[in-house]
Amino acid sequence: MPSTPCWISYQNGCPSFIELSPPFGEVFIEERNNIWNTPYLFNAKEFDEETGLYYYGARYYDPKLSLWISADPLSTKYPFVSGYCYLFNKPIVLIDPYGLEGWPPEWWTRSNMGTRLLGSVQMVGGAFEMIGSGIGTYVSGGTASPLSVPIFLNGIDNFQAGFKQLWTGKTQQTLLYSGIRSTAVELGLEEQTAEYIAAGIDISTILVGNGKAIMTIGGLKLTPKEVNAYAKIGSTGTIGENALKLLGGKSQQSFKTTLGIRRVDQFVNGVAHESKVGYTTLTPNIKQQVMKDAELLKNQSIDDAVWHFFKSPVTNKVGPSKPLLKELERNNIKVIIHE
């Protein structure tokens, strides 16, 4: 069982204090001399020998019971978890320095381990997709589905994207995702709708190795009525672009950035104008657009950046989500909402 060791020694290497604790903090082994002592043991928190409790700031922790002796002040934030349990019962992967809530340690977030873990899942899924495609039987002339080749190629696509994500810690998109998204945008769908469709098909090809998702958007489980609704919403995306054309200047102006090409809807007298129709959230694609605009502002390729939000005639919604608005303001990008 993983444990937390503590070894304190003199300059000559002779130990003055040795302590070993299991993941939940109960002392398993403890040895010390009569000269030096410290009350700071498990997680470097102060241990009260009279009560046998550790003080974390917000409350006290009992290592023998592996429980807090009082309810979590943030218990309403986690209604499905006991307010007395320690680190959601996951002390090996989470930390709680104040006795409030557990979160991944700094090395986990700094190394993007969550992103890497998803990449490993995608890589394994791609490997199973290649193995289960039946490509060997198909190539040798046996009785196998003609879809064996596209399934095998899609497995390679998922495997390479997952491997890159695992290795770099940065989100990678498969060729299938990029192709479907680009096609959907060209057909008039809004970017978010295109991303939902592309992501649904992409994920379903990992989970469903029989290739059905390659032939149909059934991986999203959309009815024809829902598909038509998505198309109507997406078709309104040109409303904003047409409105910005009234400003003059040049439409679909392209700029080079370190993140790739940034194509703004309307470029007028040094100002880049971007249009969004309906309620817009901070998706990975939208965030990348924001970062590109921020780079263009920083290197003075553009004098100013303005994002225009137009109301969707289908959903009757308009404007950025709070995270998107905060990201735009943080990067000095102006926001205009057209009601």
Rg result: 28 Å
The helix fraction, in percent, is 25-40%
The major pleated sheet works out as: 5 strands, mixed
What share of the residues does DSSP label as strand, in percent? 15-25%
Mean pLDDT: 75
Low-confidence stretches: 208-235
Structural shape:
extended
Structural class: alpha+beta
Number of helices: 11
> For the largest beta sheet, what order do the strands appear in spatially?
8-9-10-12-14
Order of helices and strands: EEEEEEEHHHHHHHHHEEEEHEEHE
**Would you report the number of β strands?**
14
Q: Give the CA-CA distance, first to last residue.
A: 60 Å
Task: Provide a short characterization of the protein structure.
The protein contains eleven helices and 14 strands. With 339 residues, the protein is of the alpha+beta class.
Describe this structure in words.
It is a single chain. The strands form four sheets. A five-stranded mixed beta sheet has the order 8-9-10-12-14, with helices on both faces. A four-stranded antiparallel beta sheet has the order 4-5-6-7, with no helix packed on it. A three-stranded antiparallel beta sheet has the order 1-2-3, with no helix packed on it. 38% of the residues lie in helices and 20% in strands. It has helices at residues 106-110, 113-132, 135-139, 148-168, 175-186, 191-207, 212-215, 224-235, 237-245, 284-298, 322-330; strands at 4-9, 15-21, 29-32, 46-48, 53-55, 60-62, 67-68, 250-257, 260-268, 271-277, 279-280, 304-310, 319-320, 334-338. It has 339 residues and is of the alpha+beta class. It has eleven helices and 14 strands. The N and C termini lie far apart (60 Å).
